[in-house]
């Protein structure tokens, strides 16, 4: 049996008012959207890998999105 690599994506449609502050929209997209979607991605990954019956289910860890994205933005600021 050959192994094939596939790419999947989870897409969210976010609707925002134009008069909303740009900073609020950036926070919504960069932090809140990730925090909202991550549990669904975890469930999808574990469900798909569990359904294969060939390999053990891959269970992604729970994460603190604010902490991880905060560390990432700090890393980007120090590299400038």
Would you give an account of this structure?
This protein is mainly alpha-helical and 80 residues long. The longest helix is centred in the middle third of the chain and has 30 residues. The model has no long low-confidence stretch (mean pLDDT 79).
Strand-helix topology:
Layout: H1 22-51, H2 65-79
Count of strand segments: 0
Q: What is the N-to-C succession of helices and strands? A: HH
Q: Can you tell me the number of structural domains?
A: 1
Calculate the mean pLDDT score and round it. Answer: 79
Shape field: elongated
Individual helix count? 2
Biggest beta sheet summary: none
Helix content estimate: 55-70%
Q: What gap, in angstroms, lies between the N and C termini? A: 47 Å
Radius of gyration: 17 Å
Low-confidence stretches: none
Strand content: under 5%
Class inferred from helices and paired strands: mainly alpha
Organism: Lacticaseibacillus paracasei
Protein name: Protein-export chaperone SecB
Kindly summarize this structure in a few lines:
It comes from Lacticaseibacillus paracasei. By secondary structure, the protein is mainly alpha-helical. The chain contains two helices and no strands.
Keywords:
Protein-export chaperone SecB; mainly alpha; 0% strand; SecB-like_sf; 80 residues
